[in-house]
């Protein structure tokens, strides 16, 4: 059974209690968003997620999207839900007020994203992609394009897409073929085919604004010849209303493993009118603006599904009666004990719980940095925030989506045979979560981004934004009698991370394949240390609260217990990642391709 | 794209070269099955898998089974394929010649099972369940029942099922409610409902023989009051032909995550005539006879799907052009290099390869023991073989199905976005592989069986059948200049396993929850050591062959490379498993159920 109640208490914990000393300072520009106000927003968001979006999740999966006569019909209820969502102002929480957004801090926005994804990840893509699009337009488009498109997109009246992939090129966009021919009036005409376009066509909005990567006739080969264009489904009239169709057609929607209520389209552009966004041949730069925003959001998708899977598993583990506890009957009135009494079921539940709480704590930290890179007054703090965001974006994307998928699978395992049946709703989480490890750059690409771009950038400066707070915390707390064992675990994993960093830097200088061979394990190792740091800090906060006296002792005790579980059972993965990194590329690359 | 070619060379390697010194001796009773003969059988099986079953796999998934008017229709082509399979004598390779079987060694039979599962795991369940049924009947039924049912089942004319689960009880069969009322003629009348019955109803055979767990009126409560009954769909006439219907009806088939071409049925028994198999109230014993056979086979399912996923990923990795190799252009004539050049893609392919080769080597070892427990002339060898089978059955089931699922997911990851689309066929491997971690006892239950039953049995005697060859091998080879590093890795992991065993024994004595809390990690650890032992031995054999001169140098070199990769990249997981075990139950069990 799909069960979800937004984990508001934990969200408030990571927002208001955990990262106060993160070094980004008070962000005066966001002072109006007091804890009281943000908590009220989170509570409202929880209602939308739980009451509007969650009830459509199972049916959306079963029904899927349907393409008929060139029009995509979303599943029953999606149109009404989207209208309610849009009218409630949820489309553009974090957007600039200049375009009608509410200018909410990212730290709050990401928590609402988690809720929306937990309740209905397919639904989340319709407003989600729009948000990526507005970011690219805001960052790179002309004022005229901004005036014309941003207000409608920010309000959610029009939606957006990112049109990158073609059938022969995904990761390697340098190969793309869609052409953009300049016209006398400064516009372009685009022709080509794109695949895997989320929300490429649907019935939720009156217009869809495509951001399309294409090549001009004089473009240099490869990624240096790619430009970004804004191509609306319908050309807007001067009064802002929707005008004639623009030669964009949907030739098919994909039959996918999951995410069935999200329309994944093959789009044809046939002499479609578009306008350049950013500079000619600098499309990759503009694209990365939206891609980076999206990457953190895709990570949060993983967390959202992981949380929903966890709660659904807890529900079942308390409800399902099988066997008796090894430590004595717990449910003497019933024919058996609920399966939550069994250690191996606990192991699964605690693992999911630790993943979710750890990822949520990182989310709050990274989104504090997202806010600080915009609003910090101290230039050094702003720089540190930028560095930290750059470093952590691939980690958040890869780690959270890997763990979200793992949680979804653990939920199925808790349900046993019943979890394999569609009726239970939990196998949907597995299918829905699987894509997040792939899109917006596969997790392997995230790892290469981390190791190949982020580590060496500015002589390793990005990494300092992470290493510094971690080592400071370890030094300050390793003598703490209660936290000691956790800090010791953190210190050991952090040592392995430092050593791995040096190894990769040294070997990678000689041979870039050495860095690439270490990338995935290194990304996991860094992610585990980040989680470990957050859990050790959380334990510190919890312990302080408990010592000081609190009427929320249960919450803080549970936080401590989950932190201990993390150090006992999850962080040891750091050791195997370290050993794998150390082994180098030799055995990985030994076989000739023909030997496979 | 679903690609599969049976790995015959590796099968011959694990059958004929790897385990010659396994201590079970020459099995004279199987002397007629010379390598030449078994290889010829494997080659024929490969043809059936590749040419008959593989082509039906994708369509079977898309079409699924259909229930109409109480009759289940299998997907297009299944009926013809089954007829060909049955007429070819493939239903009963390993069955006793007394009942029309071919008496093939299990070591060969399991390799054919791997092929069948790789090509079409849904199909494999129809003959697979029959085999479990015949084992129970052979072991426990009266001569009259054997005479009446075994020949038809062994030939595949009739198929079988295992009817255990009811909606409120799966793992905890003590709760089951199906009743069996004795009749004057010595038969019983069964009434009740069963769920999740694989092959419970279909159109492949003229009769279906259900083996049903039920409770007699005078039965004691719990598992000690369960008996096993044989209940045919149609009552056979005296001449062996099919007679009147027997009150068994199918009320629904499940809509599942995968395995869609296998009919998973809800069956109602309504005063259905059945006969007791084994002694009254001793149904669990008889059921475990078929369950244990099935558990090894379910493990092999995981291996089969893992191998198909691996080959499909290799196909794509050689075909798909994206990006350029970091060590210089490899495909100068093309627009990009095939993705197999990229280290992170290699990491995924080598991981799958190592999993498959490691599991296949264990399969050959365990099935040699299955043969030896039947045919070894030396009673000590027979005892060792029995011990080894008892020990390894839960390991094979849990390890292989976990790794098969992981391989399926890695294949999707190699395909990227294309892997998430049904068209590619690889996401089907993920959905099909997922169930094997659940059915025939969840992998958590396997782990409890290992730690709670198999370790303590006979004062730890079972474990000696495994520890002895491993420690002997380590002692004999640790000084070997070429193998040294691998043996060192094995020795370290083996040390961790020994220490974990002692820890679990010691703590588990005081508190059984301590053993249960360690179970899953211990199972993985033991599995990794078993794989490590097989890889170190394989490296030894390969090295010896290369030193002696061979015209198959490529095969042996690849074997060495895969072994090195295993020790570099996979075996390090043993360390994290060890640390997790060491941490004990405290943090896992700390939270009150209400705190979840």
Automatic annotation (TrEMBL), chains A, B:
Residues 40-157 form the Acyl-CoA dehydrogenase/oxidase N-terminal domain. GO terms for molecular function: flavin adenine dinucleotide binding; oxidoreductase activity, acting on the CH-CH group of donors. Residues 466-591 form the Acetyl-CoA dehydrogenase-like C-terminal domain. Residues 282-450 form the Acyl-CoA dehydrogenase/oxidase C-terminal domain. Keywords: FAD, Flavoprotein, Oxidoreductase. It is an enzyme of class 1 (oxidoreductase). Its EC number is 1.3.99.41. It catalyses: 3-(methylsulfanyl)propanoyl-CoA + oxidized [electron-transfer flavoprotein] + H(+) = 3-(methylsulfanyl)acryloyl-CoA + reduced [electron-transfer flavoprotein]. Its cofactor is FAD. Residues 162-271 form the Acyl-CoA oxidase/dehydrogenase middle domain. InterPro entries: Acyl-CoA_dh-like_C_dom, Acyl-CoA_Oxase/DH_mid-dom, Acyl-CoA_Oxase/DH_mid-dom_sf, AcylCo_DH-like_C, AcylCo_DH/oxidase_C, AcylCoA_DH/ox_N, AcylCoA_DH/ox_N_sf, AcylCoA_DH/oxidase_NM_dom_sf. Coiled coil: none annotated. Involved in the assimilation of dimethylsulphoniopropionate (DMSP), an important compound in the fixation of carbon in marine phytoplankton, by mediating the conversion of 3-(methylthio)propanoyl-CoA (MMPA-CoA) to 3-(methylthio)acryloyl-CoA (MTA-CoA). This is 3-methylmercaptopropionyl-CoA dehydrogenase. It comes from Novosphingobium fluoreni.
């Amino acid at each position: 059974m799909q069960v979800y109640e937004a984990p508001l208490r934990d969200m408030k914990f990571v927002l208001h209690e955990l990262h106060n000393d993160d070094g980004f300072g008070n962000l005066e520009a966001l002072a109006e968003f007091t804890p009281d106000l943000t908590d009220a927003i989170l509570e409202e968001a929880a209602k939308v997620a739980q009451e509007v979006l969650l009830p459509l999740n199972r049916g959306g999966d079963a029904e899927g999207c349907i393409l008929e006569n060139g029009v995509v019909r979303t599943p029953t209820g999606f149109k009404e839900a989207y209208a309610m969502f849009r009218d409630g102002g949820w489309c553009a929480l974090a957007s600039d007020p200049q375009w009608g957004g509410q200018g909410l801090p990212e730290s709050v926005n990401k928590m609402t994203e988690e809720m929306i994804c937990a309740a209905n990840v397919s639904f989340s893509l319709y407003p989600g992609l729009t948000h990526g699009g507005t970011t690219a337009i805001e960052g790179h488009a002309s004022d005229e394009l901004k005036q014309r498109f941003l207000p409608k997109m920010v309000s959610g009246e029009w939606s957006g897409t990112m049109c990158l992939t073609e059938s022969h090129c995904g990761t390697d966009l340098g190969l793309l073929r869609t052409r953009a021919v300049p016209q006398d009036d400064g516009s372009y005409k685009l022709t080509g085919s794109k695949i895997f376009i989320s929300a490429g066509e649907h019935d939720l909005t009156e217009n869809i604004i495509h951001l399309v990567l294409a090549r001009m006739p004089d473009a240099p080969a490869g990624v240096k010849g790619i430009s970004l264009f804004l191509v609306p489904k319908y050309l807007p009239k001067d009064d802002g209303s929707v005008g004639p169709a623009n030669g964009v057609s949907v030739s098919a929607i994909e039959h996918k493993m999951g995410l069935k209520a999200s329309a994944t389209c093959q789009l044809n552009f046939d002499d479609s009118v578009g306008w350049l966004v950013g500079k000619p041949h600098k499309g990759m730069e503009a694209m990365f603006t939206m891609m980076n925003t999206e990457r953190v959001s895709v990570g949060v998708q993983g967390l959202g599904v992981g949380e929903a899977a966890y709660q659904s598993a807890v529900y079942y583990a308390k409800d399902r009666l099988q066997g008796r506890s090894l430590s004595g009957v717990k449910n003497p009135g019933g024919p058996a004990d609920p399966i939550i009494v069994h250690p191996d079921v606990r192991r699964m539940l605690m693992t999911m719980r630790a993943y979710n709480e750890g990822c949520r704590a990182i989310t709050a930290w990274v989104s504090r940095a997202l806010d600080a890179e915009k609003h910090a007054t101290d230039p050094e703090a702003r720089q540190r925030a930028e560095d930290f965001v750059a470093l952590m974006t691939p980690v958040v994307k890869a780690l959270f989506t890997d763990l979200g998928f793992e949680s979804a699978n653990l939920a199925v395992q808790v349900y046993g045979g019943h979890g394999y049946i569609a009726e239970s709703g939990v196998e949907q989480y597995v299918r829905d979560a699987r894509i997040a490890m792939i899109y917006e750059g596969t997790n392997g690409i995230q790892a290469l981004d981390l190791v190949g771009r982020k580590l060496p950038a500015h002589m390793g400066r990005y990494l300092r934004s992470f290493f510094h707070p971690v080592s400071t915390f370890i030094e300050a707390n390793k003598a703490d009698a209660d936290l000691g064992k956790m800090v010791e675990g953190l210190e050991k994993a952090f040592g392995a991370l430092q050593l791995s960093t040096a190894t990769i830097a040294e070997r990678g200088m000689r041979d870039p394949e050495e860095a690439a061979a270490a990338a995935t394990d290194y990304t996991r190792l860094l992610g585990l240390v980040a989680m470990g740091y957050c859990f050790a800090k959380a334990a510190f906060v919890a312990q302080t609260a408990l010592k000081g006296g609190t009427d929320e002792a249960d919450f803080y005790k549970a936080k401590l217990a989950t932190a201990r579980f993390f150090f006992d059972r999850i962080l040891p993965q750091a050791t195997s990642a370290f050993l794998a990194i150390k082994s180098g590329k030799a055995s990985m690359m030994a076989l000739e391709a023909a030997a496979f």
